[in-house]
Design a protein that fits this description.
The complex is a heterodimer. By secondary structure, chain A is mainly alpha-helical. Chain A has helices spanning 2-16, 26-36, 55-85, 91-124, 132-141, 149-161, 177-188, 190-193, 219-225, 233-238, 250-262, 268-288, 295-301, 305-309, 314-321, 332-352, 359-396. Classes of the chains: A mainly alpha, B mainly alpha.
Chain lengths: 397, 232
């Protein structure tokens, strides 16, 4: 390590420093150097450090929380592929098949996203911002396995350029970039993002065929169209159901949520209130199910509220995307309101409009828009309260 | 949307006699060229956005719309400019509306007679040219205070400034949204995933939000090139 550092310091770094040949590309160099080593420069004015945490460590923690979902997603892809073909495969075979499908998506996501981010940093002369590290991992996890790679690349480009860089880069975006990428893909290529063809890879080689009676629909898709599904609640909790790559296993998502809450990176207020919001809407639907307009809708409304919460991307969205510190609410009271409506709207959208089974995506994007408004009123209310208290005191004295 | 920028009223020519101005003097040419860049109705003044979102899904309706607006705006400007000394100030908006409405009805009837399909696609938006803020804006701000020839040039310039954005946006939306231009297939059929290829049309391009984003990107490109448009 020492040798590498010396080599960098003596031979590479001067090129990028002021007056060097590649001065323009300093942000790129700096980005990689600080990735490997602690930066050598210190703050010049007084700094108030309570903890050594920086953006990179924050991002790395989230990625660590995502790794179980990623690994499980790989295995799940393989599992469903071999089940669909009616082949008995070992755990390793299943995992390797999934890895071959999923890893290219991760590479494309990071390649395109970081490439664009570096490009913009060089143009603007900023330091590299690490905001994309998490988005880059989230995007493949919320895509169906069969989506063509160029669509992933285009969605990433849209999310990074239109969703983030036009607003001023990391920390300035209004919407969660990963969800924006998914929303873009969802509206641009609906036939590759929804329906019952894309969730399970059924590519066959010579001599293989898809088993009879095979259905590639997700549990949520089944419920929305027929009101019943072949997958039990236990399957949905463990995660062995078809769906976007990383969203299926509620168990591992809870594990990730635990890590995020323990390290203080994800807000437990948002997660808790979102689950409550979802449960409340689920209970309302259970209560009004007898008055539904169609038998399918009635069956969907009658799904127990706790079952609603473990289906689809609800858990994944609530834990990893609703808690995005940039696009979410900033005030503590605001977080409760923000989270509650995410849960509430997710279940509402998914039941009322079966064409948008991923209500959680639209709910979070919508609440991203509302977050500043919520914060504004929370702050105003607080100011008012304090003013009143002050007025009372002065009046009493 | 419909508010009219009164502050923009151009300086009325001085009554001092001066040598006759050539038809395409530098000042007059500026009337034509300004709306294409420095003073574009859509990308700089942000007027007429509603129709820019609604009828830019395909190139053909966008071109027809652009031509209609050119006609309405140029004739409207000339008529109002001719009437400018006779219209009492209090009823000028009504007079402008009557003139524009008559011209729009004329355009609507012509479209229905000759290009019925396009007219059906444009639907209510031909009628809504009446409320296009660019037209009222130019009548108020320019035609009421300038001679017919200058008003005519101003009308042509602004209408094309609006039309050109419409056409650019429609070009990208039709090309990427349906793989066609003017109704002709541009992207080879064999490229499509359904036919064993790799390509798929971008359905988002056909939705209004993407028109807004496309206009946004045009504004971005324009301001990157023309730095004097950047505020603060």
């Amino acid at each position: 390590m020492k040798a590498i550092q010396n080599f960098l310091e003596e031979n590479i770094k001067p090129n990028f420093e002021k007056g060097g040949k590649l001065e323009r590309y300093w942000p790129v160099y700096d980005g990689f150097e600080t990735f490997l080593f602690v930066p050598g420069h210190t703050a010049e004015s007084g700094a108030h450090i309570r903890d050594g945490i920086d953006l990179k460590r924050t991002m790395n923690t989230v990625i660590m929380a995502l790794v179980p979902c990623l690994l499980f997603g790989m295995w799940n892809v393989g599992l469903h592929h071999y089940n669909a073909l009616g082949i008995d495969a070992t755990f390793t075979q299943q995992f390797i098949f999934g890895a071959i499908k999923v890893i290219p998506m991760v590479i494309v996501s990071y390649g395109v996203g970081l490439g664009l981010e570096f490009l913009f940093c060089v143009i603007k002369g900023h330091q590299i911002e690490e905001g994309y590290l998490v988005s880059g991992m989230l995007i493949p996890l919320i895509m169906p396995v069969d989506i063509p790679l160029w669509m992933v690349a285009l969605s990433v480009a849209f999310a990074v350029v239109i969703g983030k860089e036009v607003f001023g880069g990391t920390g300035m975006n209004i919407f969660n970039p990963a969800l924006l990428a998914r929303a873009f893909a969802f509206f641009a290529y609906p036939s590759y993002m929804s329906g019952d063809k894309v969730w399970i890879n059924t590519s066959v080689r010579e001599g293989q065929a898809v088993v009879d009676g095979f259905s590639g629909a997700t549990a949520l898709g089944d419920l929305a169209t027929t009101g019943a599904t072949q997958y039990s609640a236990f399957d949905a909790f463990i995660g062995t159901i078809p769906g976007s790559i990383g969203e299926t296993s509620v168990l591992l998502i809870i594990l990730g949520a635990g890590l995020l809450i323990f390290t203080g990176i994800g807000s437990w207020r948002i997660m808790l209130s979102a689950v409550i919001g979802g449960a409340v809407m689920g209970l309302i639907f259970n209560a009004v199910a007898p008055f539904a307009l169609s038998p399918e809708q009635q069956a969907f409304m009658a799904v127990p509220f706790w079952h609603q919460l473990i289906l689809g991307g609800f858990a994944f969205g609530v834990v990893y995307m609703a808690t995005d510190p940039v696009s979410g609410s900033q005030t503590e009271t605001g977080k409760y309101i923000y989270g509650f409506f995410i849960g509430f709207l997710s279940i509402m959208i998914r039941v009322f409009n079966p064409a948008y089974p991923e209500g959680v995506m639209l709910a979070i994007l919508f609440m991203n828009t509302m977050a500043p408004l919520i914060d504004h009123y929370v702050i105003q209310a607080n100011i008012k309260k304090r003013q009143q208290r002050l007025a009372l005191k002065t009046a009493g004295a | 949307m419909a508010d009219v920028d009164v502050l923009e009223k151009e300086v009325v020519e001085k009554p001092v006699p001066k040598p006759k101005e050539p038809l395409f003097s530098k000042k007059n040419r500026k009337l034509l060229s300004d709306p294409f860049d420095d003073n574009n109705p859509i990308t700089v003044q942000v007027l007429g956005i509603c129709s820019a979102l609604a009828i830019t899904v395909k190139l053909q309706p966008a071109i027809v719309m652009a031509l209609s607006v050119v006609f309405v705006m140029a004739s409207g400007n000339v008529i109002i400019s001719l009437l400018r000394n006779f219209v009492p100030n209090r009823i000028r908006i009504i007079v402008q509306l009557v003139v524009v409405a008559s011209l729009v009805v004329l355009v609507d009837q012509v479209l229905k007679a000759f290009v019925y399909d396009v007219s059906k696609e444009l639907a209510v938006f031909v009628g809504l040219i009446i409320t296009n803020c660019i037209i009222m804006g130019r009548l108020e701000a320019f035609a009421l205070g300038n001679k017919p020839w200058r008003s005519f040039l101003d009308g042509i310039g602004n209408a094309w400034g609006y039309g050109i954005i419409l056409i650019i946006v429609a070009f990208f939306r039709e090309l990427f949204g349906s793989g066609q231009l003017m109704g002709y297939q541009i992207v080879p059929e064999s490229w499509y995933l359904a036919n064993g290829g790799f390509y798929s049309d971008n359905g988002f391009m056909l939705l209004p939000p993407m028109a807004l984003i496309t206009v946004g990107v045009l504004i971005w490109i324009q301001r990157a090139r023309n730095t004097k448009l950047i505020e603060d």
